[in-house]
Recover the amino acids of this structure.
């Protein structure tokens, strides 16, 4: 098995593969990522002050924009993709995301339930 | 030299599978990726603490009164641009173009310093108006979360200067290139955390 074949099987996150590609291809990936990230950031900052969307949906919209931008950063800047050479990186990421959602979602859920069940004063008076 | 580098990059043949162990660059990058994910898990605990305490202002000022979104937008722009120039720097490193690498990394460092300066200015201003970390649980959570990210950026700046010095002293050796790969992963990961911070802390704080 040749080295080049070996390299196709696995990729480190953030790997450049500059030997295989020409310069323009590598830069194009970062330019596309930057363009998408700027677009998502500008929309996130502008959305609440414009009257474009139904006001109660703005928190959800901001959350979706943030998650989309994190995805853009992962794919275009950290080069974590769904390709077969990235299986290990994606599996590790998936495990990390499970923990992150358990910690954040679990904390919010349990504290909200606790506040809702505290009678008398409105939640924590810290 | 090249024979030694080749041997250390690919390890002894036939150790892991019929293909041999993966190249050291992949093992190192993967290990650092695991570290970054554990960093994300740590930040998720700070995010959870902040989100739970965001309304616990103890009658003191909240995000709407305290946060200046223009400053936050400038910080966001600086960090995003630095992520981009860091990417250009890692392309230059993989092509062994020293001058392009130095320029890209110095711009990255300058943008990171602008980000840190704006953040320190914000923190000093908050403490000066009596909204320091001891004022309320909300502000404790805020300073812990955002300060921890700022600490990561500070360490990243030190690492960046170290990498410039190492390339100057040792050139684009295989081990130096692996460190540059890890550094660029670290720097891009900080920008991902910042996306969560400017959304959850600043935008939610001002508009909710």
């Amino acid at each position: 098995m040749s080295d080049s074949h070996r390299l196709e099987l696995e990729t480190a996150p953030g790997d450049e593969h500059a030997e295989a590609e020409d310069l323009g291809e590598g830069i194009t990936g970062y330019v596309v990522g930057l363009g998408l990230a700027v677009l998502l950031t500008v929309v996130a900052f502008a959305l609440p002050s414009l009257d474009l969307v139904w006001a109660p949906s703005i928190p959800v919209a901001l959350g979706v924009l943030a998650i989309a931008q994190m995805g853009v950063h992962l794919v275009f800047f950290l080069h974590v993709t769904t390709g077969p050479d990235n299986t290990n990186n994606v599996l590790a990421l998936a495990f990390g995301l499970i923990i992150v959602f358990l910690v954040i979602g679990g904390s919010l859920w349990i504290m909200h339930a606790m506040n809702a069940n505290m009678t008398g004063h409105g939640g924590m008076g810290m | 030299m090249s024979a030694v580098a080749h041997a250390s990059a690919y390890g002894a043949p036939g150790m892991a599978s019929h293909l041999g162990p993966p190249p050291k660059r992949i093992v190192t990058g993967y290990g650092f990726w695991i570290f970054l994910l554990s960093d994300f898990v740590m930040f998720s605990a700070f995010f959870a603490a902040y989100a739970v305490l965001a309304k616990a202002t103890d009658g003191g000022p909240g995000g709407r009164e305290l946060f200046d979104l223009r400053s936050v937008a400038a910080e966001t722009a600086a960090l995003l641009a630095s992520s981009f120039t860091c990417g250009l720097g890692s392309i230059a490193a993989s092509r062994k173009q020293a001058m392009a690498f130095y320029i890209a990394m110095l711009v990255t460092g300058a943008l990171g310093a602008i980000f840190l300066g704006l953040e320190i200015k914000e923190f000093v201003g908050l403490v000066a108006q009596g909204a320091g970390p001891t004022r309320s649980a909300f502000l404790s959570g805020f300073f812990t979360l955002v300060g921890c990210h700022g600490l990561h950026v500070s360490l990243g700046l030190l690492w960046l200067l170290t990498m410039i010095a190492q390339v100057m002293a040792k050139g684009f050796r295989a081990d130096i290139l692996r460190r540059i790969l890890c550094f660029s992963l670290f720097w891009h990961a900080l920008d991902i955390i910042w996306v969560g911070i400017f959304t959850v802390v600043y935008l939610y704080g001002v508009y909710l």
